[in-house]
Amino acid sequence: MTTESPIPVEINLHRKTRLLALRFSDGSNFELPCEYLRVFSTAAEVKASDTPVTGKESVNIEKIEPQGQYAVRLVFDDGHDTGIYSWETLYKLGSKYQENWQNYLAKLETLGYQRQENDQQDRTVKLFYFAWLANKTGKESEEIQLPQSVTTIAELLKLLRMRRPELAPVFDEALLRPTVNKQFAEMFTRLDDGDEVALVPNQPTPPATPDI
After folding, report:
1. What pLDDT, on a 0 to 100 scale, did the predictor assign at position 209?
2. Where in the chain is the domain with CATH 3.10.20.30?
3. Contacts for 79 with CB less than 8 Å, ≥ 6 apart
């Protein structure tokens, strides 16, 4: 009896943070840096080389082109466009990310190559509050600058609970259905600069909070 390999059910490119987010049919979630996907390209000229690819710290993905029902071709902004990434390859790259990346860094150290780390840019998102959440917060929308440690909706809600502890119950993940840029999202969805995040209550009545 054969077991079907996991397939992607969601693929999202976050250009500002240079990450490709993948959700697979078995529930696995991966966020793979564009640099990682570029230096581990499936292209023949990359796989055949004994020297690791370098200088791709700022590389980004320009396009994601479907290849039938089994793979995508990733077109990078450095002109590289010959890598075909099957679902199995993407899953393996996600599962073995830490191991692969540490091996890559070890090879760079052997070569004496020093990667140029990119500083994370400041990110600002616009929040929209709906239904009783707008009444509780006293506003329908606001802009908020995200600390570097806040990268997902779950972490954003945690930040809101910390900033307004008297309203912490209304920011419970179980009570809200978030959207990002008018698309339903998950708590692990990553946030980019300029995103519009809507918090929509999924129950008709709010939790009890102190009178403020």
Report:
1. 79
2. 123-201
3. none
What burial letters (b/e) apply to 189-206, b meaning 16+ CB within 10 Å? bbbbbebebbbebeeeeb
The CATH architecture annotation of domain 123-201 reads: Roll (3.10)
pTM for the complete prediction?
0.61
Q: What angle do CA 25, 60, 101 make, to 5 degrees?
A: 65
Give the position of tokens 């959440």: 133
Residue 179 C-alpha from the chain's centroid: 14
**C-alpha–C-alpha distance, residues 131 and 154, integer Å:** 20
Alpha-carbon Rg for the chain in angstroms: 20
Are the C-beta atoms of residues 34 and 20 closer than 8 Å to each other? yes
**Residues 148-170 pLDDT 10s:** 778 899 999 998 998 888 999 99
Residues 62-86, buried b or exposed e (16+ Cβ, 10 A)?
beeeeeeeebbebbbeeebeebebe
The answer, yes or no, to whether residue 122 has pLDDT greater than 90, is no
Ranges in the chain annotated CATH 3.30.2020.30: 8-111
What is the C-alpha to C-alpha distance for residues 31 and 40, in angstroms, rounded to an integer? Answer: 15
Task: Note the CATH number of domain 8-111.
Answer: 3.30.2020.30
DSSP string, 98-140: HHHHHHHHHHHHHHT----PPPPPPEEEEEEE-THHHHHHT-S
Report whether 169 contacts 207 (CB < 8 A). Answer: yes
**Reduced to 3 states, what is the DSSP secondary structure of residue 152?**
strand
Phi, psi (rounded to 5 degrees) for 103: -65, -40
